[in-house]
Specification:
This protein is α+β, with helices and mostly antiparallel strands and 759 residues long. 50% of the residues lie in helices and 14% in strands. Strand 13 and strand 14 form a beta hairpin. Helix 2 crosses helix 4 and helix 11 packs antiparallel against helix 12. The longest helix has 61 residues. The chain binds adenosine-5'-triphosphate. It holds the Pfam family Kinesin. This is Kinesin-like protein.
């Protein structure tokens, strides 16, 4: 029976101080942090305070100084969590701290030399080592890698890693990232490849504090599914999830000298870390029932790790130099608060959605299909040692035959290929034999050959189907790990060594605990002895106590002052953030006010609705108004362009030219033709042409439909030509055009035309 923990446990907190950087050494910075790893203490001195101010001491589960080894850090922090994850617990390790203090160094470390490898690669060794140690179990191990950059989630393992992923909520399992890739891995090398591929996609950039600063929060997750058959013969499944979180650095905008894109990143980083701080404070206060997980994507994804069903470890990274005092003390307080978060971890046993179970079912189905197909398709090709019985039995048999399965699959593959070839050769030989038979009629031969070909085709298809099933079976089995497959001697020895080291470490911790208990007992003894001493001694003791209380009072007073200063700094940072956001808002507002019509932006505002789940504004679909749907164009009056009243029609019939009786809004005006631009003809005109023109002009004069023109005589023209004066020429209007009316328009007296023009 697997034990299920029901009790609560606190988030474990480790603090690590990095060595002085080369810049800090060059600038002759003071070291203000001292570490006592045996006692789990961190001591910090305020470089600006006077000598009377007591130094501050913080106690954590583990503390590490500048000379701490990566291996030691892993044995204390990562090892127990990974052990629990393989047992079916959820586990989270997250690194928090000011930018440039060693979060990435602690989580990922350096590839070379191998002693510098961080928690993430060391956890891979441990996971696959444990798989190797349990040959009777089956495991399915999958990995994912994401980053939260500027409040957007990106899958670092996706081909399209620029795509933004959504956080969704499942009522049973909490928040999760939709469409995140999870890769099945079978060895340390494979999972390393996955990590390195994702690392290349991470957002990093240079700031004044760190030349290779992580500008995003990253979460590398490993899901370990494990199946084990109990003594009762029933297979049990356990699923543990390990989250390895490298947070972006907390930073003050003034110190990092960030601007532009860096400033925007910093604003988003600070916003999500502030929300993380608020979540921690709310969990620790216990006063408020509302925990603001929803305020950022980071806290949504860490919900289960903070106050949920997870074994969590926080590593707070700090720097030792005096110029970082404010940030260091802030991190130490942050870590101190996190110590009090209560989680309720429990083993995830037999979850409904265990993928390993689905894989095993699929494998069993494929084997059964192969068995069935092998019997029907000519020849026994099933996997030996496996028969179809109940589901549990099938899986049990699989476990025994698994290792040989891969070899047997290869054997069967080769056999299938051979048989396919034989079928083709036999069919060919048979065809030749039939063709050679002289006593058979030609059509009988054709019939026999056709039947033979069909039979051969049928057999070939059956073999191909078997090959396909085998291929799929091979693929499925390749995803499931069984211990003996990956047991490598070198890894084994290293892990054995680590186990021994961990034993030593455990003993060291026990010694520490005993030392603490001894100290407490000594204090108690001291108090007891005190009781029986003389009055003078009692006075001395009281004096001592008073002194202690006085020191405590002083320390509390400085704490209070520090906290006030810290709140003030946070306020200033928030003001900085508000300033940046206000600037962005102003820019957007200016753009909208000047380039988007007011009624359009109002319409969009009315349709906009805040979607809690999407964490974004959404536009509601447009509703068609009833007015729009029902409105109809009025029918035109028959024969007219628009309806006309009876009265107007009569008035117009009686010749009333008033514009209000017109059925269309077109004013009748004289044609305003362009002025003449051609040159007058000054050459000699023949008598014949002159006669023709004169007769046309006479015709026009006699036509009643034309208004009489001003007199035009060739005689006058001749006279003008002979005197050498120029005709008014281009300014003169062409005969007749001035009074020509628009075709179809009613004739009107000039006075009414003028009125219309004015109207
Ligand atoms: N314990 C340590 N021992 C030796 N070098 C360290 C240690 N911690 C950090 N460093 C060095 O300090 C530098 C900054 O470390 P790192 O990039 O890990 O910081 P970070 O906290 O992840 O920064 P950011 O938040 O900007 O990403 C690196 O060059 C790293 O090698």
């Amino acid at each position: 029976m697997i034990p299920v923990a029901k009790k609560t446990e606190c988030v474990k907190v480790a603090v690590r101080c990095r060595p002085m950087s080369s810049d800090e050494i060059r600038d002759a910075r003071q070291c203000i942090v001292t570490v006592d790893s045996n006692r789990g203490e961190m001591t910090i001195r305020n470089p600006k305070a006077d000598a009377s101010e007591p130094i501050k001491v913080f106690t954590y589960d583990c503390t590490y100084g500048s000379d701490s080894a990566q291996e030691q850090v892993y044995l204390d922090t990562g090892y127990p969590i990974v052990e629990n994850v393989i047992e079916g617990y959820n586990g989270t390790i997250f690194a928090y701290g000011q930018t440039g203090t060693g979060k990435t160094f602690t989580m990922e470390g350096k590839d070379e030399p191998s002693e510098l490898r961080g928690i993430i690669p060391r956890s891979f060794d441990q996971i696959f080592y444990t798989v190797g140690q349990n040959p009777s179990n089956e495991f399915l191990i999958r990995a994912s890698f994401l980053e939260i950059y500027n409040e957007e989630i990106h899958d670092l393992l996706s081909k399209d890693y620029n795509a933004k992923l959504d956080v969704k909520e499942n009522p049973d399992t909490g928040f999760y990232v939709k469409d995140l890739n999870l890769f099945a891995v079978k060895s340390v090398d494979e999972i390393k490849e996955v990590m390195n591929a994702g690392r290349l996609n991470r957002h990093t950039g240079q700031t004044a504090m760190n030349k290779d600063s992580s500008r995003s929060h990253s979460i590398f997750s490993v899901v370990v599914e494990r199946s084990e058959t109990g003594k009762d013969g029933v297979t049990h499944y356990r699923v543990g999830k390990l989250n390895l979180v490298d947070l972006a650095g907390s930073e003050r905008q003034s110190k990092t000298q960030s601007s532009g894109e860096r400033l925007k990143e910093a604003t988003n980083i600070n916003k999500s870390l502030l929300t993380l701080g608020n979540v921690i404070s709310s969990l620790v206060d216990g006063a408020s029932s509302h925990i603001p997980y929803r305020d950022s994507k980071l806290t949504k994804l860490l919900q289960d790790s903070l106050g949920g069903n997870t074994k969590t470890l926080m590593i707070a990274n700090i720097g030792p130099a005096d110029w970082n005092y404010d940030e260091t003390i802030s991190t130490l307080r942050y870590a101190n608060r996190a110590k009090n978060i209560q989680n309720k971890p429990k083993i995830n046993e037999d979850p409904k959605d265990a993928l390993l179970r689905e894989y095993q079912d699929e494998i069993a189905k494929l084997k059964a299909a192969l068995e069935l197909h092998g019997a029907g398709g000519g020849g026994q090709i099933g996997i030996p040692g496996m028969q179809m019985r109940g589901r549990q039995e099938v899986i049990e048999v699989e476990k025994h035959v698994y290792v040989e399965d891969q070899e047997k699959i290869r054997e069967v593959e080769a056999r299938l290929e051979r048989e396919k070839l034989e079928i083709e050769q036999n069919a060919q030989a048979e065809i030749q034999r039939i063709e050679a038979q002289k006593n058979l009629a030609e059509d009988e031969k054709t019939r026999l050959i056709e039947a033979l070909k069909q039979k051969g085709e049928h057999k070939r298809k059956a073999k191909e189907k078997q090959q396909r099933l085998l291929k799929k079976l091979k693929e499925m089995e390749e995803k499931v790990c069984v211990g003996t497959q990956i047991m490598e001697q070198a890894v084994f020895q290293e892990q054995e060594l680590q186990k021994a080291k961990q034993e030593v470490e455990k003993r060291r911790k026990q010694e520490m605990l005993l030392e603490r208990q001894l100290k407490e007992k000594e204090e108690l003894n001291f108090q007891l002895v005190d009781k029986f001493n003389s009055l003078q001694e009692e006075l001395d003791t009281k004096n001592k106590k008073l002194k202690k209380l006085w020191t405590k009072y002083q320390s509390t007073a400085t704490d209070l002052r520090d906290m006030k200063q810290e709140i003030q700094r946070e306020k200033e940072d928030m003001m900085d953030t508000i300033r940046v956001l206000t600037q962005q808002l102003k820019l957007k507002s200016t753009l909208i006010e000047n380039f988007v019509p007011r009624e359009e932006s109002e319409k969009i505002e009315k349709r906009a609705l805040w979607d809690e789940a999407e964490d974004d504004w959404v536009l509601q679909p447009l509703k068609a108004s009833s007015k729009q749907v029902n409105s109809k164009r009025p029918q035109s009056a028959v024969g007219l362009k628009q309806p006309t009243s009876e009265y107007a029609r009569i008035a117009r019939g009686l010749g009333d030219a008033n514009t209000r009786f017109r059925h269309e809004n077109i004013i009748t005006l004289d044609l305003d033709l362009p002025e003449r631009t051609t040159e007058d003809y000054n050459g000699i005109v023949s008598d014949k042409l002159r006669n023709i023109i004169t007769s046309i002009l006479n015709d026009i004069e006699n036509d009643a439909s034309f208004v009489p023109i001003e007199s035009y005589s060739f005689a006058a023209e001749d006279e003008r030509r002979s005197s050498g004066t120029k005709r008014p020429g281009s300014a003169a209007k062409r005969p007749g055009t001035a009074t020509r009316k628009k075709e179809g328009a009613e004739p009107r007296p000039p006075s009414s035309q003028n009125k219309a023009r004015k109207g």
